[in-house]
Amino acid sequence: MNDMGVPAALTAAQYKSSTKPIWCPGCGDFTVLSAITKALALVGVPPHRVAVVSGIGCSSRIPAYTTCYGFHGVHGRALAAGTGLKVARPDLTVLVAGGDGDGYSIGGNHFLHACRRNVDMTYVVMDNHVYGMTKGQASPTTEPDWDNKLSPGGTGIRAFNPLVIALASGASFVARGYSGDPNGCADLIAKAIRHPGFAFVEIMSPCVTFRPEQRAWKEQVRPAPVEATDDPARAARRLMTDDGFNIGVLYQSNRIPYPLARTERSAQVSLDDIAAEFEL
Ligand SMILES: Cc1ncc(C[n+]2csc(CCOP(=O)(O)OP(=O)(O)O)c2C)c(N)n1
Ligand code: SF4
Fold first, then answer.
1. What is the pLDDT of residues 257-269, one digit of tens each?
2. H or E element: which one contains 53?
3. Within 10 A of 270 (CB to CB), how many other CB atoms are there?
4. Residue 276: Cβ-neighbour burial (10 angstroms; 0-12, 13-18, 19+)
5. N or C end of the chain: smaller count of CB under 10 Å?
6. Closest by alpha carbon to 180, among 125, 153, 220, 139?
7. Mutation test of ligand 1: which of 29, 33, 56 has the most ligand atoms closer than 8 Å to its C-beta?
8. Would the pTM count as exceeding 0.90?
């Protein structure tokens, strides 16, 4: 508070814990962490009103590096934990974060259903097209011809398109960012947090150790040439035909989030009513 009783603005530093990240020097996740803390300060929600939830992976270490409440859970279950938390504690801002392996492989089913449910939370995926923590296996977003020791000649398997899948599954906010543009990422994440519904922010975040060639992304990314649309079919067409390097908010709709979207009758029925139906 200042002398006039006006609360002082929050700063990004207030969201950064004293735990030093153990990521490799140059990892894109450093700037995503900065973008998250900056976005939270921009939105102005204090650390004790925020929960950062993750699974397992280098990127999933994020909760420990913030001063918010954190839950570093099991691999692939971050969205399930985040959904339960947000439904039980709608007063909290829930930000789920992790990698492409955590979110699209083992957690892929939760990703589909989180988009479909449209619970009001933000999901930040640091996509490096590889499993960094376990030393470089191909992930669902790995290019089919990525040749490395563990998949000689490439896997030959078509890459997953997370943004199109999010759209098709019902996410109400879909954006793509690049970790080399921390201010742009902070702006996208702040918009995602303010969006009332499931907001998905896919951030291209290079793994400099297992995918050093991703350093070239900085020459390839560009702002999306068009405004965000609220027409999922149009957004999907754009995403299916772009080269994967357009960054910005690509889709935003005002679909009512769960649980507000429940019908009047379902909102009136209590768990006790349902349990009574099963009494022997
Ligand atoms: C049930 C289970 N299966 C497998 C693992 C091993 N594992 C840990 S992290 C990881 C992949 C992480 O990749 P990603 O989510 O892309 O994160 P990154 O490390 O690249 O940031 C795997 C397979 C595990 N911890 N638990
Ligand atoms: S292995 Fe890759 S993803 Fe993990 S910390 Fe190092 S650069 Fe980052």
1. 998 888 888 888 8
2. strand 50-54
3. 9
4. exposed
5. C
6. 220
7. 56
8. yes
